[in-house]
Amino acid sequence: MRKVFGPICALTGLMFVCAPLLIARAPYESTMGLVQKIFYFHVPSWMAMYAAIAVCGIASAVHLFKNRPAADRLAVSAAELAVLFGAMGLVTGPLWGRKAWGVWWQWDARLTMALLLELVFISYLLVRSYGGPGSDKLAATVGLFGLAVSPFVYVSVNIWRTVHPLNTVVPTLRAGMFGPFWFCSVAFLLLFTLLLMLRTNLANEQALLDDLYLADEE
Amino acid sequence: MTTMTPTGTAAQAAPPAAPRGKVTQARVLHSEWIKLRTLRSTFYTLFAAMLVRARSRDVLLPILLYPIIIPVIIAGVRGTAALLGAEPDEPTAIMWIGILAAFDAVFVTLALWTFEPLMTE
Fold it and tell me: Is B11 part of any domain?
């Protein structure tokens, strides 16, 4: 893990330096103009959130069924990142919506479901912080439920007629937008990996410290 | 014994009238109540049972429950609204019932699946 950390760190930094240049050079969308460029940050942050949810859900299942504390530490790190990237998506979305729909927020299916998904992971963190002893198993179930809810959020635009753009907007991008979009997606996923490694490392050190502290007391 | 048997069969032969009458407001409400109760009961019970041992459980239960339960409630309300409008909108109601069924399938499976490892430490 430590060997790849440096290169990933450098690569992510480089990509985030290059990203604004690529976004600035990408062609303007005909109807939305400049505001459309938020798309290069909005969609990748949700992608990173889904990645975080997947990691959190799977690690939670491993902890729940196999009782592995290491998986639990991975799950709590991923849950924090899910909240972080979800908050980013929820902030960038209204910035676009203000221009596209004329309102900051609308209670349509996609937006509501995305907010609820964010709330599920906030509740995960709340259970971890205030649940007392044994709350790790409890939180693991919440993580699993969050993973189960996330596909509904993804397909919600296809089921309901919402004001949110469809998922098919990504494969039907214009040629000039495709490159910057995937570049930003990879950059966000790398950032997610980097933060996950850092946070898991912190959680591991914390657990080690707790063990040493307990051993010293005995 | 012989006097008992005819009364027994008579009681069985005359069951309460089958509920096949008109659709009334009370019956719709009753069916909605059953739907709500049965849909919620699985993960509601799971969360309630697992919070029994947790600290500050009275605060945590709504925090855990509402984000997951709200889509189900919205689906139930919107489906009912589609049916009770001036012109009953059957396709919309069926779509919402489908969503309820999908949620139900996922949550019942998950609740049954996670109940045992959660309760047996």
Answer: no
Q: What is the DSSP letter of B83?
A: H
Per the structure, how many domains does chain B have?
1
Is residue B2 one of the residues assigned to a domain? no
For A131, the closest of B60, B67, B99 (CB atoms) is B60
3-class SS of residue A33: strand
| Cβ <8 Å between B106 and A148 | yes
Q: Which of B42, B51, B68 minimizes the C-alpha distance to B118? A: B51
Q: What is the pTM of this model?
A: 0.80
Q: Which of B58, B103, B112, B114 is the mutation pick for testing A, counting most A CBs within 10 A?
A: B114
ipTM of the prediction? 0.72
Residue B61: domain span: 24-119
Protein fold of A2-25+36-217 = Four Helix Bundle (Hemerythrin (Met), subunit A) (1.20.120)
Contacts of A106 (CB under 8 A, 6+ apart): A97, A163
User: Helices then strands (H, E): number in chain A?
Assistant: 6, 0
Give the minimum alpha-carbon distance from B70 to chain A in angstroms, rounded to a whole number: 8
Query: Nearest CA of chain B to the CA of A197: how many Å?
Result: 27
Q: Is residue B55 part of a domain?
A: yes
Name the minimum distance, in Å, from the CA of B19 to any CA of chain A. Answer: 34
Tokens of residue A154, six digits: 């993804």
What's the pLDDT tens digit per position in A43-85?
999 999 999 999 999 999 999 898 888 999 999 999 999 999 9
Contact call for B54 and A132, based on CB within 8 A: yes
What percentage of chain A has pLDDT greater than the value 70?
A: 99
